[in-house]
Design goal:
about 270 residues; alpha+beta; D-amino Acid Aminotransferase, Chain A, domain 2; 2 domains; 7 helices; globular
């Protein structure tokens, strides 16, 4: 099933929209089936937090309407689907400036079949991206529409012939993969890099940090990758993906990954 809805009805954004011109907005990507969108509450929480940080017009009534719309969509699904939700700032006129009193928020919802890539089940081969992640504490953590870092990083993965690439800052701190968060096992414990200066605070990442408080938020430098004993990637579509090869070095699949997966499956 392929659906595209703009503010609840079939449609698309106009070519002059500032969301298209400037990437002025936020998005969420959800896995959905006939039981509903997975982790819908946390996704809506992240959207609401992002609208507050960006000063976008977004009310509790709009959030409630979006929840109902997404839930209703899933009633007709007979297979896994991807739902993408975009909140786009709309404002009269052109240019970067906007009037806070005149702005509105357009809601674009797209729904299409989802097929998990084969490598996600087999385990990922991962290298280091030649593209650095942009550091900006004002935008860090949010899933905003400015994703050029990831676009270029995906091409780095293609050139290197790997499934995914890790992205680091200019100073050499690993932040995330091009489309996933990173968890790594080192010195006897699990950690994930901080995302307070760059990167996306993923929904699955937050679920794991909440449910497994022993997981630490710890920095990982590029020159420390050879100290990693096991690792996995996480995002809302693929779930947890073990890293089978890191910088051409084989990694074992840690038993804890199955434990993490089982806990998430019970709560999505």
């Amino acid at each position: 099933m392929h659906i595209s809805l703009l503010n609840g009805v079939s449609g698309a954004i106009p070519l002059s929209h500032r969301g298209l011109a400037y990437g002025d907005g936020l998005f969420e990507t959800l896995l959905a089936d006939q039981h509903g969108p997975h982790f819908l509450g946390p996704h809506l929480d992240r959207l609401s937090a992002g609208t507050h940080r960006l000063g976008m017009a977004w009310s509790s009534a709009q959030r409630l309407a979006l929840r109902g719309q997404l839930t209703a969509l899933c009633a007709h699904l007979d297979a896994p689907h991807l739902i993408k939700v975009m909140l786009l700032r709309s404002n009269p006129g052109r240019g970067y400036d906007f009037d806070p009193l005149l702005q509105q928020t357009d809601v674009l919802v797209q729904c299409s079949p989802y097929h998990r890539p084969d490598w996600a089940a087999q385990g990922a081969s991962v290298a280091l991206s030649e593209t650095h992640v942009s550091v900006n504490s004002t935008l860090a953590g949010m899933k905003h529409l400015n994703r050029l870092d990831s676009v270029l990083a995906r091409q780095s993965a293609r050139r290197q012939g790997v499934d995914e690439v890790l992205m680091a800052t200019d100073s050499g701190s690993i932040v995330e993969a091009s489309s996933a968060n990173l968890f790594f096992f080192r010195h006897g414990y699990w950690s994930t890099p901080p995302v307070d200066q760059a990167g996306v605070a993923g929904v699955i990442r937050q679920q794991l940090l909440t449910r497994f408080p022993d997981i630490q938020i710890s920095a990982l430098a590029v020159d420390e990758l050879d100290q990693v004993d096991a690792a996995f990637l996480s995002n809302s579509l693929m779930g947890l993906v073990p890293i089978e090869s890191l910088m051409a070095r084989p990694l074992p699949r840690h038993a804890d990954i199955h434990l993490f997966h089982s806990e998430l499956a019970q709560t999505c």
